[in-house]
Batch of 2 targets.
Target 1
Amino acid sequence: MSASVTRTTMMDVSRKAGVSLKTVSRVLNDEPNVREEVRLRVREAAEALNYHPNVLAQALVRRRSHLIGLVYENPSPSYVVELQMGVLERLRGERYRLVVIPVSSVAEHEQEIVGLLRSAALDGVVLAPPASDNPRILKDLTAAGIRFARIAPTRDVDLGPSNLIDDVSAAREVAQHLLDLGHRDIAVIQGDPTHASTAMRMKGYELAFAAAGARLSPDRIEQGLFTRDSGYAAAQRILSRSQRPTAILAQNDDMAVGALMAARERAVRVPDELSIAGFDDSEVSRITWPTITTVRQPVFEMAVSAADMVLAQLEHGDVRPRQDHPHTLILRESTGPVSPDRAKETA
Amino acid sequence: MSASVTRTTMMDVSRKAGVSLKTVSRVLNDEPNVREEVRLRVREAAEALNYHPNVLAQALVRRRSHLIGLVYENPSPSYVVELQMGVLERLRGERYRLVVIPVSSVAEHEQEIVGLLRSAALDGVVLAPPASDNPRILKDLTAAGIRFARIAPTRDVDLGPSNLIDDVSAAREVAQHLLDLGHRDIAVIQGDPTHASTAMRMKGYELAFAAAGARLSPDRIEQGLFTRDSGYAAAQRILSRSQRPTAILAQNDDMAVGALMAARERAVRVPDELSIAGFDDSEVSRITWPTITTVRQPVFEMAVSAADMVLAQLEHGDVRPRQDHPHTLILRESTGPVSPDRAKETA
DNA sequence: CTGAAAGCGCTAACAA
DNA sequence: TTGTTAGCGCTTTCAG
């Protein structure tokens, strides 16, 4: 039953080829100083014995597991997918493999996380928010000798190679867009408060409002968690008020989708009666109806870049300390001018 | 710079605690036969030195990497997400980690795949379609001594622990639903032909048609690839014909979404002028408008079960040979009765 | 150009 | 209850 009771080892190959262990090692690793004839003989022996190196043994002595971790906290599936695809894209063709490390709550488990990573024998990790923003984790990682790169951190940008997006400006731009359309009574669905970008985006909204001489009313702000359900629930609260806002700013697309569904359920027409804007430009924002106005955050590209930063450290020790990534306002169908009658009210 | 030039090892701990290596090993692995006092002393020493076992060394000697792979081919992101979440769910709290192994084309690379898995030092793998249906891969896996479990295979069900769904009946039921609504001119968007389920679902459709005394016209069958784009393109071809069908059967939800977008673009009202049904009950089918009628395939549960089967083999060697999973027809908004005038035509 | 010997850090027999 | 001695399968000095 049990297939390989004793795997064939380098010893077997060396015996069959009539050479020493070291010579086999040299051939297998394409090192110089082996006669061509011997090289061939060893290759044939390995082939004949169906030899495959034991990567664990290699890993032990080389101190390289060739395992890269991706640490993220649950929130939005579409975000996670892009993240993964980005890392996988960079790893394609390399010897490194991707180990996914979902963490339920970075905030609650910050002290255990690096232990977890260490016990996975990772050579390096790509940190998504909010882990990428957690100084404790960065410190522990450094102490443990695990290379890392950060995605979308909001602070201590010099504490490790970082991939940055300007959350504040991005948020300012979407808010600006709604204000330009004449909206003044705008509700906000915030993201998970343990993610620093939540506060950043809020700040961006505020800047836009201030510039327009408008004000963001505190009782128009609802708490969400970056999940569609939380967006749906928040929108329900918003829409059940006697006075309905004319627009909703959701801090990510999944919550915007939730808001859209809540609106549909109440037969509130989007964008005629209610504009909804999201954040991220994730896949879902393109398949809803109406499609969702959002601001593109190049998650995929950031992930590619982060993976690249990790590999760079592992392979030649050098690090690009930071990489800025552009955001783009994407106008779609879910936002429109405020309706004339509502415009009058606040005029 | 480089954090841990020389990591602290068991040796260091044994010296500090004044005991032998083996005693340290015993304490650290909670083995019996150590005096309580000694146990404590060793624990303290380990703590003081901030000792962490080298998992690679453990893996080498124990012949266990504690790495589980998930092998899948690209098609639909939502499918992959559910798959991963299922495996991760089962692995939560266990020592095992998930390594994702996306494969561009199983059909083209079938001979290289197991080499890839071996070089990742995986203890076991969960195989999603179409790898789960590939006899060559199953054979190589067995030869390599890598445990595995299959998700939704369609043949050779006894070639390894399998999680089954009745693709034929499931497909028959959705088709039946459209036929019951009076549709007779129905187009089909097929999935990737290298996935066996594509043929199975086709068969299910045919059975339903036969039972209704109807016929599936060959020129109503369009090839897709399980991706949204391919569904969109296929629907474009379908809808550009002079005579439009009254319904579309898409072999998964992503393609159904693509079809929905094509219909929207041409201002074809769904379901009034065109019914669209999908397959999978993936996340996206719930967020489009109209929401998509589909047949639920419990991907998450199958993944949990498959991961469980792998762990079972690894931990106690026993295997549940197969597990059947139910499908459920999910009626939503994208399907409706055929319009009276079109019904007359074919009457 | 080639090989012998000494580890990597840990676990497993087998004594003591 | 504890320690000694071999390995796991590979790479790496350092001689030859």
Target 2
Amino acid sequence: MATQTTDLPQTSFAVLGMLSFQPMSGYDLKQFADRSIGHFYWSPAKSQIYAELRRLKKAGLVTEQHVEQENRPDKRVYALTPSGREALAEWIDGSDYEKDVFKSNLMLRVFFGASASPESLISLLKQNLESETEKLAQLEGMEQQCIASGPGHDTLFTLITIRGGIHFARASINWSQDAIKELEERLRTQAVGAPAQRSSR
Amino acid sequence: MATQTTDLPQTSFAVLGMLSFQPMSGYDLKQFADRSIGHFYWSPAKSQIYAELRRLKKAGLVTEQHVEQENRPDKRVYALTPSGREALAEWIDGSDYEKDVFKSNLMLRVFFGASASPESLISLLKQNLESETEKLAQLEGMEQQCIASGPGHDTLFTLITIRGGIHFARASINWSQDAIKELEERLRTQAVGAPAQRSSR
DNA sequence: TCAGCCATGTAATGGGTTACATGATTGA
DNA sequence: TCAATCATGTAACCCATTACATGGCTGA
């Protein structure tokens, strides 16, 4: 009853989740998010993190501890309370499954590709190919690192998540390659004549 | 100069893009979005579509035509203007590539899986497996349908987009299967004892 | 008769971003 | 000396959703 933890936004749980690893300041959280959940969820603006921490504190899900430091600004370190831990667990296994809606700007542009030139689509796809290939290499590095750090306790979840990223990066790469091939094919067959012409009207 | 089309949100271009296929009313656009870009981008609320159309009209990118109907409410049909068509093309091939950031709720939950029970993660993953398998079948149906409708003109872009969806659905399926296997493995090895216990603290 | 489609909107709320503001310390 | 790091926050803005409102027609 008291504080209903049910209607908090996803972001709240993302922050609670990060704090489940260790107590952190707002600044720390931003760093941490950039190099963890930023890869498969998103990384909040720092202003939002601070706002979020205030909310969680008010809801009694985290505690705030003022930490004085020498030679650098003081900080406020946040840690989960028991009810914060509970809310997190409840969110993970207590709330219903909902489909991932994934929003691809690139696919949107390709879908409307009839209104542009095939060349520019190919260029976009090639950039995606490059970007995702790099990402894949990065993820595979992380995977090895994770394995090397011992088959221990909680690395399993990190590992599974990284592998998810790897699967999706590969999908993006394969798709880009296929699409480029098909667009180049089209250029070759119906080449010559008015190049960037749009047919309708 | 006049109306700078550069700083419009993505949504504006999504609507312009749909109107590039044919003139439509707000109501039509909602239907159309649900069964096209809704699969790989997202489907706006209807209230937003109407708002968007007002904006595009004010910017001179679409025209509005009042159409009277018998036996059902009148409607306003929107069509691209030449500058609307131009803005769309400019957005597709004139604006820079930017990485797709994909936001997976499921991966977020898995990442924080140490705070929950493996069983519930497995359950979530199985639901995802089912959901994505169904989606895959649907997409493959659309693919065949698209191929059957003639190798014509603009079906190529639709086809490429559908295939993108297929690649990502397969990735999601493969990942889910892998993850389930690994979590079940973990249950088997370290089973017995305190089951839903979280270690830290 | 009653649900559901057709058709368009307003109002309230909230999630999230960017830009602005401050200020000490450290290393190139 | 100058940029970057550490550290926290305010203000303005806007994208987007949900809930509410209206009302005739159609088919089971």
